[in-house]
Amino acid sequence: MASQGPVNPSHAMFDLFVQAQTCKDVKHHFTQLCRQLEIDPKDFGSFYAKLKERLNYWKAKALWTKLDKRASHEDYQQGKACTKNKCLVLGAGPCGLRVAIELSLLGAQVVLLEKRETFSRNNVLHLWPYTIYDLRELGAKKFYGKFCSGSLDHISIRQLQLVLLKVALLLGVEVHTGVEFQGLIEPSGENGWMAKLQPRSHPAAAFQFDVFISAGGGRFVPDGFKHKELRGRLAIGITANFINRHTAAETQVEEISGVARIYNQKFFQELLNETGIDLENIVYYKDDTHYFVMTAKKKSLLKKGVIKQDYNDAEQLLAPANVDYEALCNYAYDAADFSTGGGLPDLQFAQNHAGRRDVAMFDFTCMHRAENASLVKERRGKKLLIGLVGDCLVEPFWPLGTGIARGFFAAFDAAWMVRSWGNGVPHLKVLAERESVYQLLSQTTPENTSKKYAAYSIDPRTRYQRVNLSAIQTHQVQHLYDVEKTHPSFKKQKENSAGGSEELLKWYQKHTAGYKNVNVKDFTQSWRSGLALCALIHHFRPDLIDMSSLDESNCVHNNQLAFSILEKELGIPPVMSPNSLANTDQIDKLSMVLYLTQIQSAFCMILSFKNHHALLLNPILLSDLFPQTLASPVSSELDPVAEVAPEPDTPALMANSEECYFCGERVYLLERISAEGKFFHRTCFTCARCNITLRLGGYTFDQDTGDLLNLYMSILGLRSLVSKFQLFLFCFFNIFFVSDFSTGKFYCELHSEELANGPATSCEVGH
Ligand SMILES: NC(=O)C1=CN([C@@H]2O[C@H](COP(=O)(O)OP(=O)(O)OC[C@H]3O[C@@H](n4cnc5c(N)ncnc54)[C@H](OP(=O)(O)O)[C@@H]3O)[C@@H](O)[C@H]2O)C=CC1
């Protein structure tokens, strides 16, 4: 009744804003509220403070208490960490909105663009415990009373978007819907980085920014980033949403949090007998809609006429032209009706954003993942920090329950990156830190992340259990700094390196001149036979090599000889195998330059130390400088003044070559990769269970020695049906690379999930 509502118009407007159930209504009531309170939302710096001051309404105050608590976290530096930063966020999906909230708490000006006008995703997302905690602390329950009530741990995407949109607006984020981002516009004249938008005349097109966060969803890849596609065996997913009228009869019907064929043969056989529908599994969640997601067998889809023609290629198979939409609706309807025992009366499809019946079919074993999470572009001296979050960074393999949880993690990590940027941390360090954290993202599970949800902040150390912010070094992210070729710093860098290589080449020419079959004219082919290296060694230490015994055609032997001497006497490990140098199609120039620079440094020091005999009086210093030389019997024959080590400023080559962690063979610098402090051949880096090749950042390492998977398998019989369903899913979709924390072994995503989660994790149903 009208008389029971608040009398103060701004209170009434606030209530309407809080209760609004569409994106349009939220924005409309927000504008009305701002007008009523005479606050300009563009005044982002003081907007929230003014709002609090002018809306002294008990309902609002309860919300302010929550938001104040979050804002008071030390990471935000009292909202001053990023006051100079202007951030453009692309995408008002859950992840774009979540990162926008964090950026505004850091004090940045945040403009968010979304091409859709409406929030119409009925699909339901499973929430990890921390996401529930996080959303509660942002006031989710005040905006959506039913939020995770009782044992519910899911929410429809559109409800989640509405909650986050409201919070973002209250914190001063400028949200524009119906605007498409079409690319970056490089700085020119007085202008900094801007965005090309559709419509072109949109006011946000004038926004100049120094941070760009892309949360544009799974298929959106901003310029400069590379996506990898991971594809498993075909698994055809169908999602369907039906209107929930919230009647007593509907309330009675129980949710199905996951049932898989291998654990309930009878159910699926009956379904097949009665309807001709053949499924691997089915999930049903009751939310804004009745939401069903199921995996259907291709054969039954063909038989029921849902798929018109059989193709091996999944894209062709599921292309809209090859799908009978009517038949698909019937298929989904019958499956939903059967699995709920006909308990949902008058099943009627909800509408999707296109105003059609909300049913979709897709190949959900195809997953994209960005190779890196960040990038810095510099043009005309203006730097732009770019970061990816959400599906745009890592698309979830939804049956594993990872999507929104990892999406929020990435949003926090991106905010932490922007905080460093705002604090003036050098750009390469910002990138290195962000990429160090990104390596861990695919490994996160509810089990291996910190349980102290209240302590979670944008600081990765509060969430990831084993994070090393310096795991990746600045020199490893040079390629993520994209500076224009005409920029003075680029030119200088290039000149220096060119000049440096020329000097190096001349030095080698001088010290190998006159040797038979040795002609140093480059950093690649000239070194293939091994004679040039042997000649150099002979030049400085003729006693170590008999040049007359060497045969130019015996390249592998020559290389082996030179590598051994250089390693033993100077402590410089080879960067590749003797065979690789002799036979590879393309010798890596950069690696050779680095290797030869090491050798040059070492021999130069020998020469220079000839005049510094005093040094030899200090044996401790000597042993520090020349460990190999002093330890080796050969070295005792060396001229003492020659006992020198390479310069310490080339750490990469200082490390000795290692044995491969997997095969035990020697692994050379050029061919080696490392993870968890272990070195190995790229080809040896495979999952301990399924042998699939792993990638860095996409594995889990288990330190213990026992294989927990066996343990989980053995206790499987004691677990619930849902648990079995999960394990079944993990086995069924055995392709994705993650990792685990239980065995001294490396695991792919699939098997790590099995290990880390065990069969107890519930499945995610959003997609
Ligand atoms: N159908 C489903 O159930 C889906 C579920 N999800 C789940 O949602 C969660 C978070 O996803 P999130 O990473 O936020 O991504 P989302 O896909 O939810 O959001 C990205 C948004 O950005 C919009 N967008 C894309 N390109 C542009 C552009 N050039 N200009 C303006 N807007 C653009 C997208 O519109 P548009 O979609 O029209 O391209 C979309 O609304 C994950 O858990 C994920 O699994 C994500 C996608 C689909």
UniProtKB/TrEMBL annotation:
Cofactors (names): FAD
InterPro entries: CH_dom, CH_dom_sf, F-actin_Monoox_Mical, FAD-bd, FAD/NAD-bd_sf, Rossman_Mical, Znf_LIM
Sorted UniProt keywords: Actin-binding, Coiled coil, Cytoplasm, Endosome, FAD, Flavoprotein, LIM domain, Metal-binding, Monooxygenase, NADP, Oxidoreductase, Phosphoprotein, Zinc
Residue intervals of the LIM zinc-binding domain: 658-718
Domain Calponin-homology (CH) stretches: 498-604
Assigned EC number: 1.14.13.225, 1.6.3.1
GO MF term set: actin binding; F-actin monooxygenase activity; FAD binding; metal ion binding; NAD(P)H oxidase H2O2-forming activity
Main EC class the enzyme belongs to: oxidoreductase
Catalytic activity: NADPH + O2 + H(+) = H2O2 + NADP(+); L-methionyl-[F-actin] + NADPH + O2 + H(+) = L-methionyl-(R)-S-oxide-[F-actin] + NADP(+) + H2O
Alphabetized PROSITE patterns for the sequence: CH (PS50021), LIM_DOMAIN_1 (PS00478), LIM_DOMAIN_2 (PS50023)
Subcellular location as annotated: Cytoplasm; Endosome membrane; Midbody
A GO CC term attached to the entry: endosome membrane
Family indicated by similarity: Belongs to the Mical family.
PANTHER family with a match to the protein in the record: [F-ACTIN]-MONOOXYGENASE MICAL1, CALPONIN HOMOLOGY DOMAIN-CONTAINING PROTEIN DDB_G0272472-RELATED
Record-given protein name: Molecule interacting with CasL protein 1
Source species: Oreochromis niloticus (Nile tilapia)
